[in-house]
TrEMBL record:
PANTHER family registered for this protein in UniProt: ZINC PHOSPHODIESTERASE ELAC PROTEIN 1
Domain Metallo-beta-lactamase: 18-206
Protein name: Ribonuclease Z
EC number: 3.1.26.11
Organism annotation: Limibacillus halophilus
Molecular-function GO term, any one: 3'-tRNA processing endoribonuclease activity
Length: 295
């Protein structure tokens, strides 16, 4: 099983951290998690493309996680996709996707007529709305749906991937959530969001004290995420969805590793993890990370 971080950012536009997205690949199956800004470009940079994606799983319907969905559909078609996109998401996903496709229908109709490609099936969309506790199977890769706490967002999910004797947890956006901790217990790698509250000072005209407090209330603080990984007994903790995207990486690492004795990795766009071999790749760099021994 391989995990590639396509986007480690948040709603704030950033040149190094694109919008939230991750790619999971195992036994010939490729699953995209979330569809943030720049995901189509990051897919290509990771050696993949929208054409290769077997399914898209959406953690929730916040704009930073879904903003490039139509771009994914169109670019996948241009890359030769000849089968419908399969989108798995929380309740409300079908309504959103139907509205998105209707909005762009005049553009799509004109494009189809003018470009005269062999097939239009790649522009079709199949939506499956998720419920907590469901397990979806893609060949040798399973995806378990875990309800997380991102209130006032009504429906928000994390996912547990399993295949080849390895397990991976992706938190989605959530405050500390016992359900996620229990579901992620003993996974080889936990990819978890992080909110760095001390990096968000009050700035008149930009954000108030109330703004910072409200945003912090439905995310996981950097002072808590290490404790969560420790309680879940995960093999390795990888941080993503950095709020704010520009932060002191050394300070974040020091804070989180004080609460978690295992490897803590400050995630970066296009960082990749081979969970079978225990190898992290980033550019030309390679390093090993320990794997959980299973009996």
């Amino acid at each position: 099983m391989e995990l590639t971080l396509l986007g480690t950012g948040c709603p704030s536009a950033h040149l190094e951290r694109y919008g939230p997205a991750a790619l999971v690949h195992h036994a010939g199956q490729t699953i995209l998690v979330d569809c943030g800004s720049g995901v189509t470009q990051r897919l290509i940079a990771a050696g993949s493309s929208g054409r290769d994606v077997d399914a898209l799983f959406l953690t929730h319907l916040h704009s930073d996680h879904i903003v490039d969905l139509y771009q994914l559909i169109i670019s996948s078609w241009h890359q030769g996709r000849e089968w419908p996109q399969r989108i798995f998401g929380p309740p409300g996903t079908k309504r959103y996707v139907d509205g998105l496709m209707k909005l762009w229908e005049p553009e799509r109709t004109l494009r189809i007529a003018h470009e005269e490609r062999d097939s239009t099936e790649g522009l079709e969309v199949e939506v499956i709305e998720l419920s907590p506790g469901e397990v979806h199977q893609f060949g040798g890769l399973s995806v378990e749906v875990v309800e997380v706490d991102h209130k006032p967002v009504r429906h928000a999910f994390g996912f547990i991937f399993a295949g080849g004797g390895r397990r991976l947890a992706i938190s989605g956006d959530t405050r500390r959530c016992q359900t996620l901790i229990d579901a992620a217990r003993g996974v080889d790698l936990l990819l978890h969001e992080v909110f760095i509250h001390y990096e968000l000072p009050v700035i008149p005209g930009l954000r108030t004290e109330r703004t910072v407090s409200n945003v912090a209330s439905y995310h996981t603080l950097s002072s808590d995420v290490g404790k969560i990984a420790g309680e879940a007994g995960v093999g390795c903790l990888v941080l993503t969805h950095f709020v704010p995207p520009s932060c002191d990486r050394d300070a974040v690492l020091d804070q989180v590793k004080a609460d978690f004795s295992g490897p803590v990795i400050v995630g970066e766009d296009l960082m990749s993890f081979d969970l079978q071999a225990g190898v992290l790749s980033y550019g030309q760099a390679r390093m090993s990370f320990p794997l959980i021994t299973r009996t």
